[in-house]
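User: Can you predict the 3D structure of Metal transporter Nramp3 isoform B? Sequence below.
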Amino acid sequence: MPPEQTQQPLLSEEQEETAYDSSEKVVVVGIDDHDGDVEAPPFSWRKLWLFTGPGFLMSIAFLDPGNLEGDLQSGAIAGYSLLWLLMWATAMGLIIQLLSARLGVATGRHLAELCREEYPTWARIVLWLMTEIALIGADIQEVIGSAIAIRILSNGVVPLWAGVVITAFDCFIFLFLENYGVRKLEAFFAVLIGVMALSFAWMFGEAKPNGVDVLVGILVPKLSSRTIQQAVGVVGCIIMPHNVYLHSALVQSRQVDPSKKGRVQEALNYYSIESTIALIVSFVINIFVTTVFAKGFYGTEIANSIGLVNAGQYLQEKYGGGLFPILYIWGIGLLAAGQSSTITGTYAGQFIMGGFLNLRLKKWIRALITRSFAIIPTIIVALIFDTSEESLDVLNEWLNVLQSVQIPFALIPLLCLVSKEQIMGSFRIGPVLKVYYLLYLNFGHTGHLKHRFIYLIEDYEMPDYFIDIKLLSLSSLWAIN
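Assistant: Sure. Here are the predicted structure tokens for Metal transporter Nramp3 isoform B:
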């Protein structure tokens, strides 16, 4: 058969897998005459608008059904007392995400690609498997959340397993929108975030929490033995391992020349502003959910039994119908959270699989593979737990624990890579900042800090990837402890 009649292969041998093709990237360079070789060009509102998008996609992981369950349980059991922890966990999450963006912009490659290049084969395979496990766990929560919302909005007509199947097809929405460009996809997610904000703000208005109590909860740290489990849940569901990988890839949707220091600094400045705004919005939405349940259920006999599955029913019984039944307002917000997070999960899965394995597959094939990894176990979960609401809530709690255990497999490689001069050049972080992040990773386990620093000092002369791997194994054990 003549060459011109052969079908296009699924794999391309000519170029490595990249997050975005050059034709897909948003062009932001060239708005002004400043060359950006050394210094960042002056601030421009127009450029800020063009850079806006990746941070809001990243922020969806702070608003997924797992986070909503952590919020409502925190409010019902701990009242307003853990709002301060939610604020600081979000702030710490922002700093981690800014490091991820820094890595992506300064190197022109995302975290999964750099792990493939910097670590030996067996180590990157372990990292990939652990990241996939974390992604599947997060996707189970997100898909189940969407399925619960569909069941609420259908008045119970659509069973949980059918809602899972319906949600499975959201990857086709993603593939459809992706064909129209990055900006259209980002606009779609902005609409979903707006739906969440409007829905949960409406609930906040119906519940009318006390403003002074909310302010005190945010500003005054309080923690008791009775609320430790909820505190761990608040922190554990904020940092999602797959989101660290995702953000380092999303920032490459803008055309930035990594060889020009000024242009890189400019991009980092705009991404910092955009990500900060996005996470402030997510923090406010989480505040809405927490305070609604704190006002309605804190101190009641049913506080410990409220979960994602029955939350809508309890809200309806507490606050009644109103202008529009609060049950359906909750269902709409939950559906927006579930759908947006499952689509970004599909997006993250593409980057993770392509980066670690260098699979130069067409995007629609990678999306279907990624979606299948998550949907098959989710359908099994839905069938098993459909008749037991209490068991489903317990499962969600364990899935949040899974995310906490998997955090080191994203954060340690990020910290090690972003601190290496041969990778980051002048944009690397210093050793003091690196140690600070390691302390954060092991927050709550101060009894072993001395031994951890000894490990770092003793391993200083070892190859970089051996140090990184040892940190991974130790951090995982500390997270479990």
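The radius of gyration is 22 Å. Confidence is low (pLDDT under 50) at residues 1-14, 443-463, 465-481.
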